[in-house]
Design goal:
By secondary structure, this protein is α/β, with parallel strands linked by helices. It contains 10 helices and 7 strands. The chain starts with a strand and ends in a 19-residue tail after the last helix.
């Protein structure tokens, strides 16, 4: 899967395992020559198809799907979930967000609280932020020392391989936005009364750490981009294109699983309800 600038330069969305990804050269405003109207029309069909496939996944009950959404602040994780999963019913689909760890969570290993929320077979679980925070915010803010977070990439790769072996499909999306787009979205949170509740003064402090976060994301994207759990680097300045890329990838993956409805029990066949 790839996308391109309007001038025709191709820019991949899925990279080879462990390839170095330079986010400064990645164009967050790219749209693969897709027009907004066409994208929105295609998205309507993809949403309906995603709902059908989720029902099939639930009935088939052989696989689970974990959807990981990461991005710098304002990248649009909530918006992506609302848009892409708009038609998906709540049975068998849930969203998990992870706040500051509780005392109980801190008393366990750092992956414990995430593992507890993994999807069961037949279910899709969306992580709005995830265990990757352990090599992002905890690294950038110096919450843990380098010798601790350095080892976590391997922990994460091992966990994702383990999930895959046990029937959980791991779909990871990094929503890439530009610094200019983030400034516009933060300003809208300040100016729009319906969005002011989302704004924190600390958001401006986080923005000052832009370069450190970009570096941390580049390392996570390179070191945890594996064959069994690849990263999708999604141009996210244009919300309609972001949603299209994510929806396409999820539908394509679910369609590749050979999902099927279980056969009826022999005694049910030919039965007539009085």
């Amino acid at each position: 899967m790839s996308n391109s600038h309007a001038n025709g330069h191709h820019q991949p969305i899925v990279f080879p395992p462990h390839a170095r990804i330079d986010l400064r050269k990645f164009d967050p405003a790219a749209s693969n020559g897709v027009e907004k109207e066409a994208a929105e029309a295609e998205l309507i069909g993809l949403r309906v198809r995603l709902n059908e496939l989720q029902n099939l996944l639930y009935a088939d009950a052989r696989y689970a799907m974990l959807v990981v959404l990461q991005g710098i602040d304002t990248a649009g994780k909530d918006g992506t979930i609302n848009s892409v999963f708009e038609q998906v019913g709540p049975i068998g689909c849930s969203v998990e967000t992870f706040k500051v760890p509780t005392p109980e969570e801190l008393a366990h290993d750092y992956l414990w609280r995430y593992h507890k929320k993994m999807p069961e077979r037949g279910h899709i679980t969306i992580f709005n932020r995830s265990y990757y925070e352990a090599v992002l915010v905890e690294r950038v803010k110096g919450i843990v020392p380098k010798e601790v977070w350095e080892q976590r990439y391997e922990d994460i790769n091992q966990m994702e391989a383990y999930l895959q072996r046990n029937g959980t499909i791991v779909m990871k999306f990094f929503l890439a936005i530009s610094k200019d787009e983030q400034r516009a979205r933060l300003q809208e949170r300040i100016d729009n009364p319906k969005k002011q509740w989302k704004f924190r003064l600390s958001d401006l402090e986080e923005r000052k750490l832009w370069d450190a976060y970009l570096e941390a994301f580049e390392d996570a994207l390179e070191r945890c981009n594996t064959k069994h759990a690849p990263w999708h680097v999604v141009p996210a300045d244009r919300k309609w294109y972001r949603d299209l890329v994510v929806a396409r990838a999820l539908v394509e993956k679910l369609e590749s699983l050979d999902l099927r409805y279980p056969p009826a029990a022999p005694e049910v066949l030919g039965l007539k309800v009085e």
